[in-house]
Amino acid sequence: MKRTTINPNKISFLQRIHIDGWLLVGLLVLSCVGLFTLYSASGQDMVQMERQFIRLGFSFIVMFGLAQVPLGVFRFFSTYAYAAGLLMLVAVLLFGDMGKGAQRWLDLGFIRFQPSELMKLAVPMMVAWYISKFTMPPRTTHIIVGFGLVVVPTILIAKQPDLGTSLLIASSGIFAIFLAGMSWRLISVVGGLVGAFAPVMWFFLMKDYQKQRVLTFLNPESDPLGSGYHIIQSKIAIGSGGVDGKGWLQGTQSQLEFLPERHTDFIFSVFSEEFGLTGVMCLMAIYIFIIMRGLIISSRAQDAYAKLLGGSITLTFFVYVFVNMGMVSGLLPVVGVPLPLVSFGGTSMVTLMAGFGILMAIATQKRLMSR
């Protein structure tokens, strides 16, 4: 087969530094929207803005650094990253630090971090590595092993407890299996098993406050000044924005502090109140652009590992957006998932941008293979 030759003089600067231009533009625009929204949601707190700006800068540096790494390196370290993550999750359950009623952190003296963040990348890397070793579509036995690779860390993280992160990690691994060519018949069987497992999860795995979140989701008005307060105020903020919104810095629910956690989990409510339906449609268009670009990069990848990993990372980003918007709108239970690159955050933002760095590396591999 004749190989395509590329004139080095025609390669753009972004291609030389292994960056996908369209994806970078989408991420930069979304980050700017996030900073403007956070300025309002934080009550014009410049200290918080400075911290967010620094974290964004560091996250983009991480993305740029990982984009330079050959894809073969990620493939080689997939098993090691997964094994190390499992060991750290077990260590968290045995002697992890407590914070806000959850045992999620490891304190090594010089650094305190959440091992569950590592698993957001390690799980799809491991599942993609395992599934890609076999012919596509994978056999049922391979799919069962793949699900096992997903279930173990998901349960360990759910026991911390951290329902939001466990949901994201489970999604990342399941997407890799689904993209490998899982039959709809098997999907139906898995769906039935998940439904059958729901009572076990309710009675034996879920904490009381997690059960309360589900009950609040079903009927928030049953406790309007207690557990239902967050979602009621959030729905008021979203609805009061109307079509055009009240204007930047003019949202009454956020500026008068009726809306709790307005700079983190409920920042979408602030955005909706100030920019209305028109602004929400524009924000969703930015997210859709990023997701579509990620899927295009994945579909053009040269091997199964890259396709599965890139697709899983992109669709997990979609889950971030879908779950956050759904929970603040009252369509899903509140599980503590931030709005990507808009909510105030630290470790989760770095992990998210690390995933986009891997996507950049996949795009780079495609260009190098075409030379």
Overall shape: it is: globular
| Multimer state | single chain
> Can you count the beta strands?
3
Number of helices: 14
Explain what this protein looks like in three dimensions:
By secondary structure, the chain is mainly alpha-helical. Helices cover 69% and strands 3% of the residues. The chain is built from 14 helices and three strands. The chain has helices spanning 13-16, 21-41, 46-67, 71-95, 115-131, 140-158, 163-179, 184-205, 208-218, 229-240, 252-255, 267-299, 304-328, 347-369, and strands at residues 97-99, 102-107, 112-113.
Relevant terms:
single chain; 371 residues; mainly alpha; 14 helices; disordered N terminus
Summarize the entry for a quick read.
With 371 residues, this protein is an all-alpha fold. The chain has 14 helices and three strands.
Please write out the topology.
Elements: H1 13-16, H2 21-41, H3 46-67, H4 71-95, E1 97-99, E2 102-107, E3 112-113, H5 115-131, H6 140-158, H7 163-179, H8 184-205, H9 208-218, H10 229-240, H11 252-255, H12 267-299, H13 304-328, H14 347-369
Antiparallel strand pairs: 1-2, 2-3
